[in-house]
From TrEMBL:
Domain FAD-dependent oxidoreductase 2 FAD-binding: 12-550
Pfam families given in the database record: FAD_binding_2
InterPro entries: FAD-dep_OxRdtase_2_FAD-bd, FAD-oxidoreductase_2, FAD/NAD-bd_sf, Succ_DH/fumarate_Rdtase_cat_sf
Alphabetized UniProt keyword annotations: FAD, Flavoprotein, Oxidoreductase
UniProt xrefs under SUPFAM superfamilies: FAD/NAD(P)-binding domain, Succinate dehydrogenase/fumarate reductase flavoprotein, catalytic domain
Co-factor(s): FAD
Name of the protein: FAD-dependent oxidoreductase
Organism expressing this protein natively: Sinorhizobium psoraleae
Length: 575
C-alpha cells in the first residue's frame, strides 16, 4: 500500500468491515498479490462472526467428502428449492454451491485455517433433499497467542454465553460441561479446561484457547497478517469515492481526521448489515415498531447500516422483498452489571427436556426444539394483531439446574442475582409463576398437565417435538424415550421473557453472482462489491440450516477475491 499525501493512501482492494466474509475477501485478494486494506469501524475486529457459533453451511465440502459423505450438487439444490422457492433460481445459488467447497479447500491449503467437520449436524428441516450431516464445517480451536498484540483487538465472545469469559466449543465440549457432574470422564475434561483457562487469565488476562466464531476470525486475521494486509481499527467509512464512473475508494474518519483510501481494483462492503439501524428496521421489520426499537438483535451494536447507505448514495438498491428482512432468533433482555442490557440469543436451552414456551394466554405455540428462525416465525403468527409479540420460556428446577435458562448458567452457578434483577421469575407453583408473569393461570396449568402426560411417553401430539433429526441433536441424547422431551414437575418453576430478535439481517444490497453491487437497472456498479450481511441473503430471507450466513458470506468473499485478482470463478459467465 502506498502513501499518497498526508491524508490519503492507495491500494488495490479496500474492504470495509472485518467479519469473516470481508476477511476472506482480503485474504484471497492478498494471496494473489494485491495490496489490501481492511478498515473496521469498531475498536474490535471480527464483527458478528467473532461472537457467532462459527459454523458454515457448505454442502459437498472436502471434509465430508473425505469422510465418505458424497452427494451430487442436485441434492442440496433440491433441498433449497423446497426451502426458498423461486430463490433457488438465483444465479448466486449456483455460484455458492460450486465455490463453497473450493473456498474451504483454499483456506486450508493457503491460509492459517484448520477445519473441523459437522458431519453429524442435520439441516433444519426433514424435507426432500435435506441431509442428516455432512454440510457443515467450523474452524478448529486456535491459540490466541499466535496473534501477538492483535489479540487485544479481537472482539471477545458474548460474555453472557461464556464461563467467566471462557467460551465453550459447541458440540462435544459443551456436552462434557453439561455432563460434568454425571460422568468422571466429562468431569476430568472440564477440570483440565478450567485449569487452562485460569492459567491463561493469570498470564494473559483472557482465554487464549479460542473456539467457535472467535477461532474462525482469529485464523483469518492471522492469515491476513501473514499476507501483508493492512488492518485499521476505529476507522469508520463516511462515503464512497467515485471517479470516472466507478467506485474508486472511500473516505474514512481516523482519529477525527478525514482520510481517503483509493482502491484501484475495488471496494468490498462487509459492514454487517443494519441490525441496529432503527430507521431501516422500522421500514422493513413490522414488529420493530414505528421507531424501529422493538427488534432486539444479538449482533454488535456498531452494525448500524452505514455500508448500505453509502452504497445507496452511489446508485445501489436494497432488496426488500425477502421472506424476512432479518435472521430471526428469540432473545431475552439480560441486565448487565454496567447497567446495560445484552440481547441474549436462545439457541440451546429451548430444545432441552423440561422446557416449554407459552404465550401470555398460557398456551404453547411452537415446537420449542425447532430452529430459532422457526421459533420466532411461530411467535409472530401466534401474536394478535397490534399486540407486542413476546412469550415466556418456562423450566422446572431440575431442568434449570441441569441446563441453565437463557443467560443463567446451570448449577452450581448462582441464580439469585438474575432473580433480583427480574431477569428470571421464580415461584413454588405454576399458579404463582403465572401471576408473576401475567400468564393465564388456568390455561397454563392445563398446558403443562397435557404436556407432562405426553412427555412421559416421549410424545408431543401438538407439535411433534423430538421427531426430526434436528430436534434430536438439539436435545439430550441420554434422555429417554425422547431426546427433547421431559415433564415439568420439580418446583420451583422458572420463567424468562422472550422477545423477537435476530442474529443479523437478510435484506441487503442487490448483487450478482460475482457479488458485484447492482444499480436500479440491475447493472453492476463498477468497483463496488458486497459480501456478508451487506449482500442480500442468497437464501431469499429464509433459514434452511445453521451456517447459511457465514457459508455464503465467506464463499462470496472467496469469489470476490479471485475476481479482483483477475482470476476465473467457477460456474460464472461474466457479462
Amino acid at each position: 500500500m502506498a502513501q499518497s499525501g498526508d491524508n490519503s493512501m492507495n491500494c488495490d482492494v479496500l474492504v470495509l468491515g472485518s467479519g469473516a466474509a470481508g476477511l476472506t475477501a482480503a485474504v484471497v485478494s492478498a494471496h494473489h498479490g494485491l495490496k489490501v486494506v481492511v478498515a473496521e469501524k469498531s475498536s474490535w475486529f471480527g464483527g458478528t462472526s467473532a461472537i457467532s457459533g462459527g459454523w458454515l453451511w457448505i454442502p459437498r465440502n472436502p471434509l465430508a467428502v473425505n469422510a465418505g459423505i458424497k452427494e451430487d450438487i442436485d441434492d442440496p439444490l433440491t433441498y433449497l428449492r423446497g426451502e426458498i422457492g423461486n430463490g433457488a433460481g438465483d444465479a448466486r445459488i449456483d455460484s455458492f454451491l460450486a465455490n463453497g467447497p473450493r473456498m474451504v479447500s483454499f483456506l486450508a491449503d493457503h491460509a492459517e485455517m484448520e477445519w473441523i467437520d459437522g458431519n453429524r449436524i442435520p439441516d433444519f428441516h426433514d424435507t426432500p433433499g435435506s441431509s442428516i450431516g455432512g454440510r457443515s464445517v467450523s474452524a478448529a480451536p486456535f491459540d490466541g497467542r499466535s496473534l501477538g498484540s492483535l489479540i487485544e483487538r479481537l472482539r471477545p465472545p458474548l460474555r453472557e454465553a461464556t464461563i467467566w469469559g471462557m467460551a465453550v466449543q459447541g458440540g462435544a465440549e459443551m456436552s462434557h460441561f453439561f455432563n460434568a457432574s454425571r460422568s468422571l470422564t466429562s468431569s476430568l475434561i472440564v477440570t483440565r479446561r478450567l485449569a487452562r483457562f485460569a492459567w491463561h487469565r493469570l498470564r494473559h488476562g483472557r482465554d487464549m484457547h479460542l473456539v467457535n466464531g472467535n477461532a474462525l476470525v482469529a485464523r483469518l486475521l492471522r492469515s491476513a497478517l501473514d499476507k501483508g494486509v493492512t488492518l485499521l481499527a476505529e476507522a469508520p467509512a463516511t462515503r464512497l469515492i467515485q471517479e470516472q464512473g466507478r467506485v474508486a475508494g472511500a473516505v474514512l474518519q481516523v482519529k477525527g481526521t478525514s482520510f481517503a483510501i483509493r482502491a484501484a481494483r475495488g471496494v468490498v462492503l462487509a459492514t454487517g448489515g443494519f441490525p441496529h439501524d432503527p430507521a431501516r428496521l422500522a421500514a422493513l421489520v413490522p414488529h420493530a415498531g414505528p421507531q424501529g426499537l422493538d427488534h432486539h438483535s444479538a449482533a454488535p451494536r456498531t452494525n448500524t447500516g452505514e455500508g448500505l447507505r453509502m452504497a445507496e448514495a452511489v446508485g445501489a438498491r436494497l432488496r426488500d422483498d425477502l421472506a424476512s428482512a432479518t435472521a430471526m432468533a428469540p432473545v431475552s433482555l439480560a441486565p448487565r452489571s454496567d447497567g446495560g442490557v445484552t440481547n441474549f440469543p436462545h439457541l440451546v436451552d429451548r430444545a432441552k427436556p423440561g422446557f416449554i414456551a407459552v404465550t401470555p394466554d398460557g398456551r404453547r405455540f411452537v415446537n420449542e426444539a425447532d430452529s430459532y428462525y422457526d421459533f420466532v416465525s411461530a411467535l409472530l403468527r401466534a401474536t394478535p394483531t397490534k399486540a407486542a409479540p413476546y412469550c415466556w420460556l418456562i423450566a422446572d428446577d431440575r431442568a434449570r439446574r441441569r441446563w441453565g435458562i437463557g443467560a443463567v448458567k446451570p448449577f452450581p452457578f448462582p441464580l439469585r442475582p438474575s432473580q433480583r434483577s427480574g431477569y428470571v421469575l421464580s415461584a413454588r407453583s405454576l399458579a404463582e409463576l403465572a401471576e408473576l408473569c401475567g400468564i393465564n393461570p388456568t390455561a397454563l396449568a392445563a398446558t403443562v398437565h397435557k404436556f407432562n402426560e405426553a412427555a412421559h411417553r416421549g410424545e408431543d401430539p401438538l407439535f411433534g417435538r423430538g421427531s426430526s433429526p434436528y430436534n434430536r441433536i438439539q436435545g439430550d441424547a441420554h434422555n429417554r424415550p425422547n431426546a427433547s422431551l421431559g415433564p415439568l414437575e420439580q418446583a420451583p418453576f422458572h420463567a424468562v421473557r422472550i422477545v423477537p430478535g435476530s442474529l443479523g439481517t437478510f435484506a441487503g444490497l442487490k448483487t450478482d453472482a460475482l457479488a458485484r453491487v447492482l444499480d436500479g437497472e440491475d447493472k453492476p456498479i463498477p468497483g463496488l462489491f458486497a459480501v456478508g450481511n451487506d449482500m442480500s441473503s442468497v437464501m431469499n430471507g429464509r433459514y434452511p440450516s445453521g451456517g447459511i450466513t457465514l457459508g455464503p458470506g465467506m464463499t462470496f468473499g472467496f469469489v470476490v477475491g479471485r475476481h479482483l485478482a483477475g482470476l476465473p470463478v467457477t460456474r460464472i459467465e461474466e457479462t
